[in-house]
Structures are given as C-alpha cells and as structure tokens.
Design a protein that fits this description.
Number of strands: 2
Distance between the termini: 31 Å
Number of helices: 2
Shape: elongated
Strand order of the largest sheet: 1-2
Structural class: mainly alpha
Largest sheet: 2 strands, antiparallel
Number of domains: 1
Radius of gyration: 17 Å
Order of helices and strands: EEHH
C-alpha cells in the first residue's frame, strides 16, 4: 500500500472522491473503533455498518461501471486473502 500513488478516485463523469485513512500514529484517539467496548473482532456488525456507510456516502455519485469495477477489485482481494490464509494453515499443519 505504501508504494501506491494516491490520486482522486473517479466515481463517474461528474464526481471524484479522495479517501483519508487514519492510523493510530495519527493521534486521533477518539476514532479508534478497536478500542471501543462494542467492537468485537468476531462480530460482523461493525464491518457491515462500515461497508454500508462507505457506499451510502458515495450514493448518487457513482455509475454502474464503478460499482462493477469495485466489486471485481474486492473479489480479487478476498481471493488473495483466502489463499494466504490457506497457505498459513497448511504451513501450520506441517
């Protein structure tokens, strides 16, 4: 991720967005969900709400091609993640 050149994300012909990602070292202590009492690693509620919020904030600004490309990119990352998890599990078994 650190080698990526950040540029505006083109949602459609008439809309772009720039995403700001904050980490712990940014000192924004009030933003940390992982420290929150209601954050449970096994509970999908927080991630589902975050994904819904992400798409809702873009609502009306994107076109269908953007959503299709986003889905394809997400599917690719999920596949890579699952393959890495399989490799790790196989290494631990051996």
């Amino acid at each position: 991720m650190s080698n990526i050149i950040r540029k505006p994300i083109r949602l459609s012909r008439h809309a772009v967005c720039i995403i700001h990602v904050f980490s712990r070292c940014d000192g924004l202590r009030d933003l940390w969900m992982i420290d929150s009492e209601d954050y449970v690693e096994e509970d999908w509620g927080v991630e589902k709400d975050a994904a819904k919020q992400f798409v809702e904030q873009l609502d009306g600004q994107y076109n269908i091609r953007f959503l299709q490309a986003l889905r394809a990119e997400c599917d690719s990352h999920i596949k890579e993640w699952e393959e890495r998890c399989k490799e790790i599990n196989n290494e631990q078994k051996n």
